[in-house]
Input
Amino acid sequence: MKIALIGAGSVVWTRRLMMDILSFPELTGATLSLMDIDPVRLETARQTVERLVAQVGAPATVEASLNQRDAVRGAKYVIYAVQVGMHHATLLDFDIPRKYGLRQTIADTLGVGGIFRGLRTIPVMLSLLHDMEEVCPDALFLNYVNPMSILCLAASRASSIRTVGLCHSVQGTAHQLAGYLGVDDKRVGYRVAGINHMAWFLDLTIDGHDAYPALWDAMGNPAVYGRDKVRFEMMRRLGYFVTESSEHMAEYVPYFIKRDALIAEFDIPIDEYVRRSSENLVTFEKTRAEVASGAPIEMKLSHEYAAYIIRAIEANVDWSFNGNVPNSMDRRSAALIPNPPA
Output
């Protein structure tokens, strides 16, 4: 079984996903195919994954290639984690709108920055999907790249490859809500629906009992409210808690980033993703140095969905998750969510 990771030069992300895969005995014999267009980053990724394989003592095979088509040839699963244009393009996503008075926080989903990102990423993604149609037509495409909804829509309309978009916002928010409610997250249950970065906790339970009354009480605690002001304010107005963070949510609706006083009141971090992108450059160099030092890598299972999905398929076990797919898989299918606005 071959698992390809396109965009492996995002080494922290690669380490997390490969660590998850190697944590499941059913997957330890896989061929792990890494691909990136940056040879320095790719080599760092290769060394990192080979170190993980050695630490686990797994029979996995590690491959690395600068050629996309070769990397996915014969793959059963393809994980997508690229950032087209890297840091320079991110700066443009913010600098150009700012010239015209538009302030943003993350700019990876919608608005001017999100559209910029989508326009430059769709052609690159489709080139991969068209390669997959020829060299691994039955593979499952696991997309982690934003703008998630835009890219998954493009994939569903322009390619025959089976695609699901993955984000950690649902399980990440469930973990946060458990913290706000003061309970272990294993006690929290939920039913979530919507679009990526704006799905809603339609049901929230603790030990099977409605947890929304407790969440409303928690919102009255300034220490809790202050950690998630935008999302709690949206819950106050709409009655449900949203899956994406306050800094994301602030730029999805027209209520918060319109006056300096509101930005200050709701602690909205303007240009937040520029800061994160700059930090990522520093983090890569630190990771590169750690790999070169030969120090052991801490093994820790994450809550990202990809490895769990692959393991569920390979082991033929039931497992549920929140993924991004078309609301109707085709014109004959019933809508998964029957009442979205026109």
Notes: The mean pLDDT is 96. Residues 111-135 form the longest helix (25 residues). Residues 2-166+278-315 form a domain with the LDH C-terminal domain-like fold (CATH 3.90.1820.10). Strands lie at 2-6, 31-35, 61-65, 77-80, 140-143, 162-165, 188-195, 198-206, 209-210.
